Amino acid sequence: MRKPFVAGNWKMNKTVAESRHLVSELVPGLQAIDGVDKVLCPPFTSLLAVAALLEGTDIGLGAQNIHWETAGAFTGEISPPMVAEYCQYVILGHSERRAYFGETDETVNRKIKAALAHDLTPILCVGETLEENEAERTKEVISRQVREDLYGLEGMIEPGNESPLVIAYEPIWAIGTGMAATADGAAAVVSDVIRPTLSDLFGEAFAQTVRVLYGGSVKGGNAAEFFSQPEIDGGLIGGASLKVADFIEIVQAAS
Ligand code: 13P
User: I want to staple 128 with a disulfide (CB 3.0 to 4.6 A). Which of 104, 141, 196, 246 is the partner?
Assistant: First the structure.
């Protein structure tokens, strides 16, 4: 049995003061929900403040990116050990980073390895564009992303052990558009593409331990539909993770 997992990706939203306010409103509701791994991913500048507010709760903390090097002359970047001081998780390969900041499967792969080396659990995002979807290239695109992003991890992943990896299937056309995938369609990508590719790479036992989330226009009103699919283990939530009632309803739906 895979434990349900819900993470809020705040993207580039919330100052420190706003983050404190949102977290203080979220914590009581989230703390009352058992049986779900709950994770907040605020911007870097808010990690310290949010970490302090989450101390003593069962709510995890994640960053939205890292560089793959440990230290050095990389102006403006944040290293894995810097993030690991506060976080247990890091979102990697989000489609917005691939589209606007030149991230490739190769750089995502380096970041995944760096995260694992510093005991950060990567939340790896994969997803196809609308154009690729309409050309029926979803399977090819997603399986390539999973293979290339997880290339060479054999030594870092112990087959049979609990998975140190979370994957989020986020079709790009569903992100922030209000046009979510269908629950059946998303589950089919997980069962027909993501898990078989993981099984190919690391064996079936390992593939069955990886939590695979759906992301893209998940709201309080449609979350239960996605989470009722046995193949979908939770959600990566953007816009709705900034709204207290909506996010709590989504986490509730996963429990
Ligand atoms: P929305 O929930 O706003 O569509 O964003 C999804 C997402 O990109 C989460 O990483």
Answer: 141
pLDDT digits (tens, 9 = 90+) for 67-83: 999 999 999 999 999 99
Active site (annotated) includes residue 67: no
Which residue segment(s) compose the domain that 128 sits in? 5-254
* ∠ Cα 177 101 247 (to 5°): 40
CA of 220 to the centre of ligand 1 (A): 13
Expressed in angstroms and rounded, the spacing between residue 20 Cα and the centre of ligand 1 is 21
Kindly state the tokens that stand for 170.
Answer: 């986020």
Q: Which of 94, 96, 118, 132 is catalytic?
A: 94
CATH number of the domain at 87, please. Answer: 3.20.20.70
Q: Let me know if 170 is a catalytic residue.
A: yes
The percentage of the chain sitting over the pLDDT mark of 70, rounded to a whole number, equals 98
Class of residue 161 by CB neighbours under 10 A (exposed 0-12, middle 13-18, buried 19+) = exposed
Count structural domains, the chain: 1
Identify the pLDDT of residue 133: 96
